[in-house]
């Protein structure tokens, strides 16, 4: 969306990575190659299939060369994104399904590859989880590279034409970001993408302001235009007038000052004014994010999502492969604790290696712990890999989407079997490893007192708990106003979970999006949660707020919230209390 003021143009998009960049745009060609499907004669089918095979092999070789070069020049950090694309190309389905289209439809290789990509897009579009839904970007990146190989369009690394460059493109792939000269390129803008794409994760890791979702911004008419990029609000301003330029220079200075101040306090303990300690941890998807969590003051990982390891592959990963990845994550956050969530997939997050039928209501279907219990041998591979990692440092296991005691007991029984198998093989592990549960279903809230007797910790997944409690699809834009974290029913559920956990003597944690939003901190702190796990960039500001208030005062605020009848009333009250009690304090 764009608005115009004289020659100045303002665009609004998706905030991918915070920060303010002031420089000039450089439009780079990252558009999809222009290819058309056309008919081929029967005698040319074998040649088209061979052309496809050759293009895939050549593209794989090019990516392997990029991986080698990056490893030599910058070390192994972030290479998992390149390896993910190599993994997709090693999956024979991309070739075999496209080859089958060449044979059945008698069309050229490029057209067949496009049809295969369209099929994948339709599948991923039906996935509810935003992070996994955006993994289609990995498949798209691979297909685009193959098509460029087939059409002879070389895609060279992006080099800045001048200092203080803000790169603009239709889309940017991990390889683009990894090969950028970060001393000259100070920001990124794309037409496609979102907060959970790999490019966004890398932008945050490299502290590059980034905005996505701005239609038609990669227009050559904007090339070299002076620009201001605000990655915190998702705003791009072209040809800023003097007043706007001066205002954003001050905002940039203020932002950088605040960030430096926050990061300086990152190493400070997360203690309230009355000495109560609350652990702040990070939510991560890949090992490369571990160092980012620690540098922002995190005390380990409260949620390690393992789904990425299972995506875009025909066969489930073996135990040793999982062990290597989990070990890399543990090393990244050592000596701090690591909480590994077992596979939360299936239904709306259907994995290719798991033969399941399409479900009408995947959000309530065969997913998460239900799916794991339905394939015990594969589940135990993951459990054994986690157990093997546990001997090297503090590790916890977290079972997702537990709805009752039966599921928890079956999961723990398989965990005991995995322990016995490792013990028999003489492989060491932490015999006292903690196994907790995600509380994200209303039934788990209702049964919290019973579950607390047999779980080692609770971690509330607020995203799903809100969705299931309020019967609101959080991906449905029409229902967005009804997705209310401060709904009185949600707050009563949170209170019930904390009380049940503490009566049983186990920790109560939060790993959903509520944990990282300062607006909710007084309630979560006041209710008595022991640990909050969030996006790494949120940790410093939440820690600052923790250090500015007493637990006693936060409890008074939280209790007062239960006297209000609507989310709007609670929000207004919270904002008032934050302004009074959380703006100043010990630093």
UniProtKB/TrEMBL annotation:
Cofactor(s), by name: Mg(2+)
Keywords from UniProt, A to Z, are: Coiled coil, Cytoplasm, Kinase, Magnesium, Metal-binding, Phosphotransferase system, Sugar transport, Transferase, Transport
Where does the secretion signal sit in this chain? none
* Family annotation (Pfam families): PEP-utilisers_N, PEP-utilizers, PEP-utilizers_C
All residue ranges annotated as the Phosphotransferase system enzyme I N-terminal domain in the record: 12-135
Q: Which reaction does it catalyse?
A: L-histidyl-[protein] + phosphoenolpyruvate = N(pros)-phospho-L-histidyl-[protein] + pyruvate
Asked if the record carries the keyword Glycoprotein, the reply is no
PROSITE patterns reported for this sequence: PEP_ENZYMES_2, PEP_ENZYMES_PHOS_SITE
Residues covered by the PEP-utilising enzyme mobile domain = 164-234
> What SUPFAM superfamilies does the record tag this protein with?
Enzyme I of the PEP:sugar phosphotransferase system HPr-binding (sub)domain, Phosphoenolpyruvate/pyruvate domain, Phosphohistidine domain
The chain's coiled-coil residues are 42-69
Q: Offer an example of a GO molecular function term for this protein.
A: phosphoenolpyruvate-protein phosphotransferase activity
Q: Where is this gene product found?
A: Cytoplasm
Which EC number(s) does UniProt give?
Answer: 2.7.3.9
Identify the main location. cytoplasm
Q: Does the keyword Magnesium apply?
A: yes
Domain PEP-utilising enzyme C-terminal positions: 264-549
Question: Which InterPro entries does the record cross-reference, listed alphabetically?
Answer: PEP-util_enz_mobile_dom, PEP-utilizing_PTS_enzyme, PEP_util_AS, PEP_util_C, PEP_util_CS, Phosphohistidine_dom_sf, PTS_EI, PTS_EI-like
Relate the protein's function as given in its record: General (non sugar-specific) component of the phosphoenolpyruvate-dependent sugar phosphotransferase system (sugar PTS). This major carbohydrate active-transport system catalyzes the phosphorylation of incoming sugar substrates concomitantly with their translocation across the cell membrane. Enzyme I transfers the phosphoryl group from phosphoenolpyruvate (PEP) to the phosphoryl carrier protein (HPr).
Q: Which family does it belong to?
A: Belongs to the PEP-utilizing enzyme family.
Q: What is this protein called?
A: Phosphoenolpyruvate-protein phosphotransferase
Upper lineage ranks?
A: Bacteria, Pseudomonadati, Thermodesulfobacteriota, Desulfuromonadia, Geobacterales
Which gene name does the record give? ptsP
